[in-house]
Amino acid sequence: MTDTTQPRNAHSDGTDGTDNSSTPARVAIVTGASGGIGRAVAERLAADGTAVVVHYGRDKARAEEVVATVEKLGGRATAFSGDVADEHAMAALFAAAEQAYGGVDVVVNTAGIMLLAPVAEFDLDAFDRMHRTNVRGTFVVSQLAARALRSGGALINFSTSVTRLQQPTYAAYAATKGAVEAMTLVLARELRGRDVTVNAVAPGPTATPLFLDGKPQQVVDTIAGLSPMERLGTPEDIAEAVAFLAGPGRWINGQVLHANGGVA
């Protein structure tokens, strides 16, 4: 459900998000920004001086924590909710960003869910739910980004390094992310002449609460050992990759960047 309240601007001057008299240099929408990686991305982009629309699904309190953190850093942020697979809710999200800040330069699609089971046992309703969020949601937001991003802009979708690891129980999840990679690479070519880059980041195992929940320490240590760096990634590691693609990495386009510490 879309939040029916007005988007909250966290700029320290107390503005309500509709005054464009101090338009920021760059504006980003980060979907799923109340989660581990999404939050790190939002805060990292804000540290670069980018105004951030902090999208969330249900956890309003965590989204407002992100907004408050950005404010403490002297940045500007707005919290806004909505189902990423609902084109009307996402159109409202983009409209809110343009109303608050005058336009959109960066869109980062971190929103997604991961449900695991062997193919033979996978519940098809669960598969449809994951497909709706990971594939349709990414497509809806990418479509709106393709229409809205200003010259010099960047769209960054999220895949996973699991697409090339062939790990049991990950087939359904990897399939949704394979679809994300396909649409990302095609869209980069479709935006020829727009000066807009389109890439995907494919994290490896990353120490988020979602990843660590329910895993015995021995399992976590084994997974960490898959990388030559001998550790899990952090949300901040992934956020650095996103910030590069959103900013100085203008000559990288139509690519999948595997941010995984060297996992094969």
Structural features, described:
The structure is a single chain. This protein has 264 residues and is α/β, with parallel strands linked by helices. It is 41% helix and 17% strand. An eight-stranded mixed sheet has the order 1-4-3-2-5-6-7-8, sandwiched between helices. Helix 5 (171-190) links the parallel strand 6 and strand 7. The radius of gyration is 18 Å and the shape is globular.
Quick structural summary:
The chain is of the alpha/beta class.
Q: Give the distance, in angstroms, between the N- and C-terminal Cα atoms.
A: 39 Å
The main pleated sheet reads as: 8 strands, mixed
Largest beta sheet: what is the strand line-up?
1-4-3-2-5-6-7-8
The share of residues in helices is 40-55%
The CATH H-level homologous superfamily: NAD(P)-binding Rossmann-like Domain
Uncertain segments: 1-21
Order of helices and strands: EEHEHEHEHEHEHHHE
The total domain count is 1
Shape: globular
Please identify, by name, the CATH architecture: 3-Layer(aba) Sandwich
Strand content is 15-25%
Topology summary:
Elements: E1 8-9, E2 27-31, H1 36-47, E3 51-56, H2 60-72, E4 77-81, H3 87-101, E5 104-109, H4 124-148, E6 149-158, H5 171-190, E7 197-203, H6 209-212, H7 217-224, H8 235-246, E8 256-259
Parallel strand pairs: 2-3, 2-5, 3-4, 5-6, 6-7, 7-8
Antiparallel strand pairs: 1-4
